[in-house]
Each structure stands twice: as C-alpha cells, then as structure tokens.
Design goal:
Aminopeptidase, globular, alpha+beta
C-alpha cells in the first residue's frame, strides 16, 4: 500500500530491499550510540524484515530521500478473538525533514496496515520525558492513559575469556 500526500509531497510506503543504507542512516540519528552492524548481518536482518508479511518499515520518501520512518510488526494472539497485536518502534524523522508532518504520515500508514491485518490494538513505547513525541502519538490515535507499558532489558554482558594452557589461571 502506497500513499502520496499532496500537501507535503511525501510518498509514504513500505521500504524495499535496496533501502537498507538509507534506513540505517535514519536509525543512526535516533540511536547514534548503537553498535554498527556488520554489513552481512544488517543485510540478513533487513531481508528478514522486508520478506516478513507481519513486519515492515514504513518510510516517507521526499524528493528521492527518506525523511521519516517507523517499524510495524504484528504478532499472533490467542485473546481478543485471535486478532493480532501490532507493535510500532523506531519512529524517526531525519533532522532535515522535521516539523513537516512526515512522522505523523508514517504512523498513520503503519496504523492502517495494522488495521488491515485485523489487529485488536497497536502498542508504542516512548521515553517518559519525550513530551513533544507524546503529542505526536496522541494526534494519530495513540493514548497514554489506556494501558501502562513496562520494559525489561538484559544486564550488561561481561565477556569472560576461557582459560588457555599458555596463560596462568
């Protein structure tokens, strides 16, 4: 499903296989401290997203450049009559394209894809201090007063090198 928004000139659609580098550039703006993936790992992961009927990266293309993105994944669900649950992550607008409505457009498109899959709800987590982003999310239909989200992250990994006979224990 593609959408061309006339008032902004953005072409909102699902990303395609050849856009990995452009999407990674957007991700680097949101998460500059993330480890850089090896090209072969990034390509493998990207193909897994693009080829997955239940996951996609939505992009707003403006004058041949990706201006904004978000990722939608839907998961099976035994409750709610078996309707899927959608999850939106990584809502990003490139700094050169901010305040022009592109994030709103990719979010609306992601929601329309989720509803087309029969999702009973779509979840989106946001940092508690990101008040401006919360206003954006509310403007497209997300509500922060319906359910409460929690996040668990793994403990930092400590690398333990195995003992070798040449090294003292």
């Amino acid at each position: 499903m593609n959408t061309l928004t006339r008032h902004t000139g953005a072409h909102v659609r699902e990303a395609v296989i050849g856009e990995l580098v452009a999407v990674q550039a957007l991700y680097a703006e949101l998460r500059p401290d993330d480890p850089v993936l090896a090209p072969e790992d990034a390509s493998r992961l990207w193909r897994g997203i693009v080829d997955n009927p239940y996951a996609c990266v939505v992009v707003a293309e403006v004058s041949g450049q990706l201006g904004a993105t978000c990722m939608l994944a839907t998961i099976p669900n035994l409750a709610s009559g078996g309707r899927r649950i959608g999850i939106v992550e990584h809502v990003i607008t490139a700094s050169a394209f901010r305040r022009r409505g592109f994030a709103r457009q990719v979010l609306r498109h992601a929601l329309s894809l989720a509803w087309a899959q029969g999702c009973c709800k779509v979840l989106l987590l946001s940092g508690v201090a990101r008040e401006e982003a919360h206003g954006l999310y509310e403007s497209v239909g997300f509500r922060g007063d319906v359910e409460r989200g929690f996040v668990a992250k793994p403990a930092p990994v400590t690398i333990v090198r195995p003992h070798t006979p040449e090294q003292p224990a």
